[in-house]
Amino acid sequence: MELLGVRVELPANAPIVLLRESSGDHRVLPIYIGTAEAAAIAYALENVQVQRPMTHDLMRDILAELGAVARRIVVTELRDHTFFAEIELVVGKATHRVSSRPSDAIALAVRTGTPIFADEKVLDEAGQSAADMAETEPEAIDEAEVDEFREFIEHVSPEDFG
Fold first, then answer.
1. 30-41 pLDDT tens trace
2. For the domain that residue 11 is a member of, what is the CATH number?
3. What was the pLDDT predicted at 49?
């Protein structure tokens, strides 16, 4: 999967992360995420440097300190409108799979260069073609709302999340 980015779904003002198949039908997988996770992903995509490590930076640093490598991220399941993911870690010769929210796994993947995958069943159920995405896009995007979210992303700090 290719990480297309984070955006605000209008009119609900809900942040979503968009993943797209890098081959095949190039279906897009939209996953609703929290505002904090959207900011964490956006920070990493924009190479924003913060004074102190954010949670996902800390997770990356702990893995590195322990000699663990995140081999891949997999969006494994969609159950009751909730996506599930796994982080596949390699420590020495052992492989470990850790359950995760997709947003946290993606935030880690952006920081570590870890490839992202999605189970075929998830794509069959929730993936959308580019044509489907175009049909569900609002005709008029409220630029003020988009600018407000951009402003939030640019000026949010880790302290804002307690």
1. 999 999 999 999
2. 3.10.690.10
3. 86
As a whole number of angstroms, the distance between CA 25 and CA 20 comes to 9
Going by C-alpha positions, the residue among 120, 107, 129 that lies closest to residue 57 is 107
Q: pTM above the 0.85 mark? A: no
Nearest alpha carbon to residue 129 among 30, 26, 32, 31:
26
Torsion of CA 92, 96, 100, 105, to 10 degrees: 40
For the stretch 81-113, pLDDT in tens is 999 999 999 999 999 999 999 999 999 999 999
- Give the structural domain span for 41: 2-161
Q: How many domains does the chain have?
A: 1
